[in-house]
Every structure is written in structure tokens, then in C-alpha cells.
Amino acid sequence: MEYNVIFQPSGRRGKVAEGKTLLTASHELGVDIEAPCGAHKVCGKCKVKLETGYFEKFGIDSQADHLSPVSEEEKKILKPEDIANNYRLACATEIKGDVLVFVPEESRKADQVVLDTGKERVFTLDPAVKNYFVEMPAATLEDHRSDLGRLQDALKEQYGLENLSIDYFVLRELPNVIRDGDWKVTATVLYDREIIDVRPGFAEKWYGIGIDVGTTTVAAYLCDMSTGEMLIKDGMMNPQVRYGEDVLSRITYAMMNDDGRDKLHDAIIEGINTLAERMTEKVGLKAEDVTEITLVFNTAMHHCLLNLEPKYMGRSPFAPAISAPFDVKARDLGIKIGKAANIHVLPVEAGFVGPDNVSVLIAEEPYKQDEEIRLIIDIGTNGEIDLGNKNKLLSTSCATGPALEGAQIKFGMRAAPGAIEKLRIDPETKECTYKVIGDDKFYGRGEKSNAKGICGSGIIDMVAEVFKAGIINKTGRFNMKLDTDRIRKDENGKPEYIMVFAEDSGIGKDITVTQGDIRAVQLAKSALYVGCKMLMRRLGVNKIDRVTLAGAFGSFIDKESSLVIGLFPDCDLDKVAAVGNAAGDGAQAALLDKSKRIEARDVAASVEFVETAVEADFQERFAEAMAFPHGLDEFPSIQHILDKIPGYKK
Amino acid sequence: MEYNVIFQPSGRRGKVAEGKTLLTASHELGVDIEAPCGAHKVCGKCKVKLETGYFEKFGIDSQADHLSPVSEEEKKILKPEDIANNYRLACATEIKGDVLVFVPEESRKADQVVLDTGKERVFTLDPAVKNYFVEMPAATLEDHRSDLGRLQDALKEQYGLENLSIDYFVLRELPNVIRDGDWKVTATVLYDREIIDVRPGFAEKWYGIGIDVGTTTVAAYLCDMSTGEMLIKDGMMNPQVRYGEDVLSRITYAMMNDDGRDKLHDAIIEGINTLAERMTEKVGLKAEDVTEITLVFNTAMHHCLLNLEPKYMGRSPFAPAISAPFDVKARDLGIKIGKAANIHVLPVEAGFVGPDNVSVLIAEEPYKQDEEIRLIIDIGTNGEIDLGNKNKLLSTSCATGPALEGAQIKFGMRAAPGAIEKLRIDPETKECTYKVIGDDKFYGRGEKSNAKGICGSGIIDMVAEVFKAGIINKTGRFNMKLDTDRIRKDENGKPEYIMVFAEDSGIGKDITVTQGDIRAVQLAKSALYVGCKMLMRRLGVNKIDRVTLAGAFGSFIDKESSLVIGLFPDCDLDKVAAVGNAAGDGAQAALLDKSKRIEARDVAASVEFVETAVEADFQERFAEAMAFPHGLDEFPSIQHILDKIPGYKK
């Protein structure tokens, strides 16, 4: 006997045999209902509502007795008011007649996840690590299978998972876990291949962290892997900074000291352990609850974190120890999360263009771009640049230095509460207003704020604004003749501009921008600019259609300010977008969708690496690009802004 | 152009194209020549001798100029006298005319290995861990493959190995190893799947240890994996003994103490580390040189060594945590050998019948036995018994106790120098002569020896001899009326027999056998006997055709003595063989021939486990079997011996 079954709101309908469950019917009719416990009547996620009465529109008579009676399991899980309102568990309810069923929003299976760490990105939710709930028959003298054999058999029968191995440390406690769960457990499985956690009974959640390890800053994102939701983000200075500001000085440190490699490794591992503990604690979890971490970084940080011999990374021909993506046990690295947790390392492209750029690429997907030429700049101590589209993609790395991350800047700081993140200067009065992280308003003179320093996005604004206000000229030199008390000479006789006076600041000191700060930014932006131009030359294009600015800044950098200082060649400002930490987003994408790991491997192999710093005219081009916005090139998109700058001539 | 090539002593001959090397020719003609370096002209193993002059018998003219001139590589590797005597490297020598070539014994590839730890056993040499020597092109700016990619490509091109992974700790040092070897390295590969060691240049050797972890004694065998040769064996008391003499008391210890599991684990791991260090040091190696260990043990020791929760092993239904064979990193167990070394654990059958019995089975191969019914007894603190042939195989486990290993025996000791291993008593004079390990002769009264105690094989002799001499009767009770100064009462008033007088012994004390010792042996032999009988009943046979006695004794136990005390049911003594430590041999076989691991998995799954101790008449049968040789059963094979015993009546 078959009956008519209709699922709302999708409207999918069809004939279903008597006695099948609503969950089975939903699979047959192509309706996705959540059932994380594998239809074992324990999770309560597959709640649906029977719509009763004659539905003229659908031509069927849907009645309560067209379903099997409410079962004991449903009474345990559903609230009395749910039952009164005709809610049922789809996995526990059999079809006995025509029915119209409504699937509430929370019961619909999320097969997509929206990352909203900056730019909103939509990915498929299909992680490499997954949970499976199973019930097993208890051991008897007649059924003397081992505990593992029993679990493997159940996972095969109930989910079709074959040839599963188990991590040794999980195996150790398996007998207790199985009996604590009364022969019902949730297994956490990596790549449908290895059991990396087993917990008693039904466990809905499992957790992962995506980490972007920059030369200067580390950004981490803790995700609920069952929903794809990012629960919390956190960051810190890279603790390796004490052994060297840039990658070459760290490689040198590793080479010159017997325990140098270990010290670099231990420092960042300790940092990751701190982040994992801090983040999980804030959301009521433990670090042991984390079963996977994805890691992205430049190739030098890759070697220094993983404790791979970095010596040959620092000298021609710059061969890395490994470029393929790989998986390693957290415990082998000293990372203190789940005992059998996996660390997935994204692939290296070439030289200093590492997994962080691959991560930017899988987040931004320029390899899916049809015609337009896209430029993607990931701003960090090592800047990475990608140029091209689906036909061809080039990439390079630039020694930007840490200035745009707030290091080597007198009042520079990490994007954290108290950091100036936006800044405007009145071209007439030379007065300054600014916005501080953790506060929504702009402050001006005489207004007490929590300002403690300035972070990346503020630094770019700051340089653009002093240039636009005529406080510095196009070569970056201060104009000391302006009528304002904000410009003065510091204790070394060098000019500086006071952004926040001591009495207004959160540190009881004037917060200033110095001539040295301006120079550091000029070196950084020139390196990026020349990198872009050399990729354009190699690709044979003289115009960029679209620019994406990425970086682990607190808030997005201002695209107009970026173009005014000449961070990249001219582009229509409508086609310029700042997207936040795309490398961090890519790390999360690889955590939540295993197909992104395949994309990463493929793009790492196909993108063409260009070694720009060895080009013959590099130094000459670099010198030209030091000026604001540039010594020679035209910037039609911002000509109207440049025209208003007092005393500006190209 | 093709030439006649003949290889001696095999006599294989055929036409080979001009310019091919002698090594290639040997492959084409089915001659096995050693080439561990993969024909890279570095190992010098493929030395062959050109036989010059007209060989009437073979009808060809073999001349020195029928081969390419001696190359620079050959001059480096071969001694001048070798070159003078027409020795060549087969891999470096091209064919230019008809040649007759002699392959010396040392150049012939050994594809078989003979184990001679007790019984001589012949296995194929085809280990799970293998060495591969490769040359790689150096890194250049044009060829920016990673070090690992380069190594993987070379292993694929030169040996057809695909999709190789690498252990993380090996990867860490890979850049240095590759450059130290000047782009030539030897990779050690597990299951042709994972690189677990990489050394600079050509490394011929790699090493493994087979270990049999008994409840009371541990036996270890260090092997040269390139030849299959057992370099050294060593043993020790199981250090877990301090936490309990038998498996149940150890499981109880683990359950009753918070850190009980860890303590048991740590004790045996420390023991294995001591053995690995001691054995490698004795042959001029280091423990790090060992890349694989195979482990066999009973199921309780399996759990206690691996630190798997053993609680449920000690209570019905005795389900183990895992029964499948598995591999785990030595470092995860705390075993200090190669950083990435593998530990292979043989499979569990059921309950207390563990990998040690599987190991005995792959050594003895009763599953290949055609018609005869074979009985295999592995004597240990837990005795394991197998009965059957290729049609059906049964096994069981008996709680023998440690008496037959020298524990719980007043002067019992491990099989080590100073242990009495053979013993004879004159039935007339009741005088005793004995042989001590480390010494070839038999000692008697008045002869000073190094005797310190008595080991397993000596204990069985000793009980058989006191019985045969009428010193004890068939119930095991001492006859105090005999006219000899060797029988007396000890400080507790219990009878004892003096085997070695204080002035003759190596410890300055009388070495005796006590009434308690006799009782301990009776309990042990009765357990084994009843186990055998119950398997016979289950299999439906009343006669055994062939008996194999195995155990980690110093020398082989005396088969006649074993039958006289009634260790097993009657069998023609010609068909009884003592084979030494078959479990240890199986562990080595699994180390040296990976197909033995498949056999182990298959036999573990097919052998039928019988729980004999739960049979209704177990206690009754056990009591009957306490007498010498038995209370009821006939022993026609030794009736002539029994007939001579003073006062013996069945």
C-alpha cells in the first residue's frame, strides 16, 4: 500500500510505501532533514510538524492517525507542547496514510555554511572530520568480537564506512568509552578513514580551529564543525618575533643557534596552545574538544612552526622540505588539543609563497574568474600578490616588512581595543579625528579616548591623510612650515605629527606619526606596487579590472587611502574591495569543506610563481614607486583627489 | 647485435643485446644477483667473475674484451687483485661479445632466510620494511620541487613506488640528509607506503627486533633485515612481575590503582628499551638503528604493554579492545628506537589466546599439515595448546603458572648462565649429575660447578628423574625412607632433595628441589594435560600423531622427561619434538617476511578458540591429571620406563 506524502515548504511530494518512516520518505523525495544521530532516535534534530485537516490546495487529507502513534522515544525527546502541536520525530514516525508535513527551518539540513569573518563567503559544509553515532550489540561469550571490531562493524553497517583504522590513543580508552555509553558511542572520523575520537552516547558537536600564522600576527578561528558556525576569533603577536622580526632573521637565528629551530618551534606552538585554551574556555569548551586544526602561513613560518630544517629556504634555490599538503598528529607537534587530533597543513606553492597564499586563493577563487583580470594583494610582513583569472594565474611574494601590521611603527600596535583603525585630517586646519577599536565614534581634540596606538588600517589612513593634507609631500618629507601645533620635532630632531594629544589619549602620552613611520610605509607600499607591476608585465596586461585587498587587519583597510598612497596600480575604486583576512577565511574553508583541500592542492600546483626580486630593473622600479602615489605612473581613478592636495604635482 | 651469455653456477644461458649490462642480462635470464643499491654502482654487491678462454663445454669464446673496459666506478669499489682476477660489477659492465660469467656465492641474492634459534626454519626474505637507494637531481632555480617531492619522484622512477607518505619526524631532517648525501640517499620504507627513515648516501643495512613478551620472561631477537640473519638474542624477566606474578593479578593491579595501567606499561616499555639498547650495543649498533619491532604476547600482556584498558579482559565475556593486527609508532608507546620506527602487533585470537599463539602457528604452520593430528604446546605462565591440521584447528589457553619458567620454584631461575638445564639421577644410588648453561659437561658430587639454580628444561628433567628414581611417588610425595644423604627435611620440616651440595655450587648453598616445587610442577602439567584432552574431545580424536613442545626455555626440554611427568597425552616419542621458542621464531618470521603477517591474520580468524576451563568436568579431570604421569590414562610409549620405577603402579 502506498500513500501520498508532501513535504513543506519545499513542496516535494510523491508516493511512499506504508510503514516507511518520514525520514526515509524525505530521502526518497529529495528533502534534506537533519539527522546527525543517524536515525537512532536520540538527537531530536529531525523534528517535523504534521499539518492536519483537509488541504484543498494539495488534494489530500492529512490526519494524525495517518502516522504511527507517538513512541516512547519521542515522548522522552519532544516537549509536551510539541507533541500537542503535532510535532514528531521523522526517524521515529511511520506512514499509515496520506500526510502533509512541514519541515521547520532548524530541522533542514545545512549543507552550506556562510563565513562572515569579513567578506561574506558561502561554502559547502562537508568537513574532513565528521561525527557518527552508532549502537552496537553488547559483548557476550558467543559474540567475542573485540571492542574495535564491534565498532568497525557498526560503522560499516550503519554508515557504509569500510577499512577504518583507529588512532592508538583512542584505542586505549575504547573499552571504557563503549561501556560508559552502554554500547552506544559517537565516533569522530577523519577522511572517513581513521577514528580520531570516540565519546560515550550521542555527541552532536565537534570542533575545529583555522589558524593563519603570520610572520607578525597570528589569527585563529574556532568553529562548530556540526553547523559551520565560527564561534569566536582570537589573535596574538607571533611569539617568534623575539627571535627575529622578519623571516630571514628567524631562519638565521635557527641556523646560528644549536637549539634555534626548537626554540622557534616551541615559541609558536606555545602560542597556539594559548590560543586554543583561551578560545575554547571563552565558549565553555576545553582544548581537548578540538579534533582538527588547519594551518596556513608563508613557507618560512611553515618550516619554523613545523620544525622542518629551514636553512635551505633562506638561500637559492629556496627549495622547501615539502610542498604537498599534509596531515600530522597534533601531539607530534606538541599541540595540546584532542589526543588524536589532526593538523592539516595546506600546500606550499613555491619559495616564500606559501600555504597562506593558497588559502587566500581558495577563499577568493580567482581561478573561477572568467574574463576580468583580478589582482589580489594579501598584506602582511610578507606580502603575497596574485594576478590573473581562470586562464592563467601568477603569484609572487614581496618583502613588505611589518610596518602595515603596526610593527616598526613608533605607536604601532596589533588590531586590538585601543588601536586607531580609521583616521581623517582636515586639509584646512590640519586637525585630526580618529576611530578606535572597541568604540563606535570619531574622536577629535579635547575628547578623551582610549587610544593607545595605531593598527594597520589606521596606518594606511594616516599616511594617506597627512599626504592629502599637505603635511608631507609626495616624497614623504614633512612640511615644517604649516601653522599647526600638531607638527613638531621629536627628541632626535626628526619631524612628527601629533594624532592624539597626551591628555586625550589612553596612555597619557602624545600619539604621533614620525618621519621614520612614513619611510617604513613607503618601503612597504613600494615593494607591493613593484610586485604588482612585475606580475602585470609577465602576464602581458597593462590594466587591472578588479582589486582585492586582504590582510589580518582589525577592520578593513580603506581602499581610497590604499590607492592614494600607491599600494597598487590604478584601478576603478568601485572595483576595489577590502575583504579582511582572506587567508584566515581559507583556513576555515579547508576546515569546513574537504573539497577545498583538493582545490588548494590543485591551485598550488597550477599557479605560476614569479620571483620578482631577481628581475634586473627591480631596484630602479622600487625607487620610482617610493613617491606618493608613484613617481611616474598615472592614477586617473583618484586624480580628483590628488588635484586638491596643496602643492601636489606629479 | 646479440651475444651468447652464460651465467654459472646456474648454467642459465641466452642471447642478450649488445650494450646491455651483465645485471640486466641476469634479470633477463632469470639469474638473481644482489643489487641492493639499485644498480647505482655504489654498493659493490653485484661482483661477478668473467671466465676467459675457450670453453669447449659451452661452445663459446669468453674474452676480457667481450665486456666494456673497467670503469672508474669499478676501480673505486673493486680491489686491484679483484680486477686482476677478472672480477667486475655486473651493473657497470656492458656486453660486447660472448661471455661466460661466474656469480660467486656472496653475490647471489638471498630470497630465503634460515632461522636457527631452535628448530631450523626456512622463510622467504621479504620484509615489510625495506631499503631503497636513490639519486636525485640537485635543486635549481628552474627545478623548484620540494625535497620530499624530489625524493618521491626518484623512488617512483627508480623503484615504481607510488603515493609514498613520510613520517613527520623524518621529514624534519630531510633537507639536511639529502644534502649531506649529495643528493643520494637511502630511504627505509614501510609496506612500500611510508618513508620511516632516510640516511645520506648508500646504506646497505637496516635492523629489526622480534620480541616475545611472556608473562614471566621476555625474549628478544635482533635481526639484520638485509640478510635475515639473527645477530643476537637476549632476554629478561618481565619487569611487570613486581606488580603481579600472573595475568589476573596484573589486571587487578591495573584496576585497583589509579596509575596502575601506566605503571604496568612503563615497566615493560622500560624493559624493552633496555633490551634494545643492550642488544644493539653488543653488535656495535645503536637503538636508533632499529626501524621495526614485531611484538607477540598473550592477550593480557598485549593490553598491559600497549596500555589498553585491560579491565574487561579479566571478566566474562573477556572481550579484548582490539583483536586485529596493527601498527603503531614506537614513539607513541615510548619505545626508544628509530624516531619513526614501526611496531607491528600480531593479531589476537580470542580471550587469553593471543598473538603469541598466532606466532607459534605461523612458525609451525599446522594449517599446512595434511592428515596427521598435530598437538602444539607452548609452555609459559599461560600455556597455549593447538590441536588439528589443515582441515580444522582448535586452540585453548591454560593457567599453567610460572613454575615451568623457573618462577615460584625455590631455586628456579631464568635460562641464563649458571642455570641447571639438564639433570640425571641414578635410580640405584640416587646420585645426581647435571649440566649447567654456559658449560658443556655433566657435573656430579665433589665437582665444583657454576650452578646457581634451575631453569625450565632442568625443572622438567628434575621432576621426571626424582619420579623415575622412586624419590617421589606417583602422587608427588617424597619417600623419606631411602638411604641417601640427599633427602632431608628443610627448615619448615618439608622434604627436599639436594641436587647440588653447597661446596660444589656456585652460590655456596645447597641447591634443592622441594615438596612445594613438585606441587607447582604438578599443577602446571595437569593444566596442560587437561587442556590437551579437552581439545581432543572437542575435535573428536583419541590419539595424537605428532607433538611439538615450544617455550622460551634456554635449551630444548627433554621430550622423554616431559612425557614421563605427563605434560601431554601419550604419543610415540619419535613423533615428539621440542622446538625452542616458536613464538619468538614467529615474531622473527613476521619481521622478515611480510606474507607471514597475512598468514597470521588469516589463522587468527580461522582457528577455533575453546574455553576449556568452563567445561563441567574440568576440576575432576584436573585432579586426575595431577598424578605422574596420570591417574587413569595409559602411556604405552613410555611403559618400559614406568615399569622400571621402584614401587610404581598405575
The CATH C-level class name of the largest domain in chain A? Alpha Beta
Largest sheet of chain A: 6 strands, mixed
Oligomeric state: homodimer
Total discrete domains of chain A: 5
The Rg value of chain A, from CA coordinates, equals 29 Å
Shape of chain A: elongated
Which two chains share the most extensive interface? A-B, 47 and 47 residues
**Which strand order spans the largest sheet of chain A, edge to edge or round the barrel?**
16-15-14-17-19-18
Q: What ranges of chain A have pLDDT less than 50 throughout 5 or more consecutive residues?
A: none
Measured as a percent range, the helix fraction of chain A is 25-40%
N-to-C span of chain A: 84 Å
CATH architectural grouping of the largest domain in chain A: 2-Layer Sandwich
Average pLDDT figure of chain A = 92
Look up the CATH topology of the largest domain in chain A. Nucleotidyltransferase, domain 5
Beta content of chain A comes to 25-35%
**How many β-strands of chain A, per DSSP?**
32
Write the topology of this structure.
The structure is a homodimer of 650-residue chains.
Chain A: E1 2-8, E2 12-17, H1 22-28, E3 47-51, E4 53-55, E5 60-62, H2 72-77, H3 80-84, E6 87-89, E7 99-102, E8 112-115, E9 121-124, E10 129-135, H4 147-159, E11 165-166, H5 168-180, E12 184-190, E13 194-200, E14 207-213, E15 217-224, E16 230-237, H6 247-256, H7 260-282, E17 290-297, H8 299-306, E18 326-329, H9 330-333, E19 342-345, H10 355-364, E20 374-379, E21 382-388, E22 393-399, E23 419-425, E24 432-436, E25 442-443, E26 453-454, H11 456-468, E27 487-489, E28 495-500, E29 511-514, H12 515-539, E30 546-551, H13 559-565, E31 576-580, H14 582-592, H15 595-606, E32 608-609, H16 618-624, H17 639-642
Parallel strand pairs in A: 1-7, 11-13, 14-17, 17-19, 20-30, 22-32, 23-26, 30-31
Antiparallel strand pairs in A: 1-2, 3-6, 3-7, 4-5, 8-9, 10-12, 12-13, 14-15, 15-16, 18-19, 20-21, 21-22, 23-24, 24-25, 27-28, 28-29
Helix pairs in contact in A: 6-7, 10-14, 10-15, 11-13, 12-16, 14-15
